[in-house]
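ARCHIVE CARD
Drawer: 12
Card no.: 0347
Subject: one protein chain, sequence and derived structure
Cross-reference: see card 0346
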Amino acid sequence: MAQKVEEGVQIIDDYQVVFRLKHAAPEFLHTISANTDLVMESKARWDAGGKELYGKKVVGTGPFEFVERKVGVHVLYKRVENHWRKTPEYKELEWRWVPEGVTRLATLLTEEVNIETGKKWGSSGEVQYNPRMSTTIDVSIYQLKVVLLGISPMIWRRLLVRGDSTIADLHHILQIAMGWTDTHLHQFRIHGKTYGIARLGGISFRDHPHQVCLADLGLRLHECFFYDYDFGDHWQHQLRVEAILTPEPNRGYPICVAGTRACPPEDCGGPWAFMTLRQQYSLFHIAQRLEDIIDSGDRSEYVEELYDLRYWLTVDRFDRTTVNRRLRQYARGDEAWQWA
């Protein structure tokens, strides 16, 4: 844009500046205003309103603001509430990268997108641009049973997940459902190939985690695949396709419909170490330690141990309500899902 300036910039006063351009460039003012902290307005507007109008209804500010850009996936915007022009009726605007003509046609035919209005309706009657929240019937629902291997008694979850959930989605869904904190490396093992989200200093993957969907993997009914988490403690999860269903109207996905027991603490040493700790933290041991801490008088130095004791008291409890709250937050793009 600077190449269009012929003789530079002339500052008249605190509120006026003159750009001398090589040729007419109507977009110049818009670009400068939209992409810098400097509020730019036309001279005609300044002459009409002066200081009273300065900074209000700024040129270049539209009713949507940028949220994120994922290369090869989409560019996402959210609406500006009470915008001075008009507040859009839908909350999000997504420009989705769909290179295949057949796929583009299919999304139009199934009304997943609307080329005229951009609307995509969820069960609440509000526009939902996140495909994980769609209630359209153009995708299958995978019923997955997730079992943490090497643990007795068994720790497991039953999940209903949309077929258009990506590898990245599935990773986050499993982290939420199991109760992990996503502080270690991971990988999926499916048909002899690995998938996952690459991390700095960790392993890399051939396929983009936001471009490979569950439905693309060719999984058959009753087939199993695996999810490894924390290559030190080496937690292995077996995922079995129990059923492939059609979506239920007015039901959000993903959702956890069953499960037992809390997942092990992070960095506890793996399955055998966890089961050893489980035996050590018997109810008698916990009661004895609590009595000792109470008798000591000063409990401030035992805060961390009290937190551990609380976990072992509830190790057989699975909080499905909290899991589903976080899954709903994740599905609608609410960052609060990252905190239990």
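Annotation on reverse: The helical segments are 27-35, 43-53, 101-109, 167-178, 271-280, 283-296, 303-313, 320-331. The chain has four domains: 2-53, 64-129, 141-262+316-338, 271-313.
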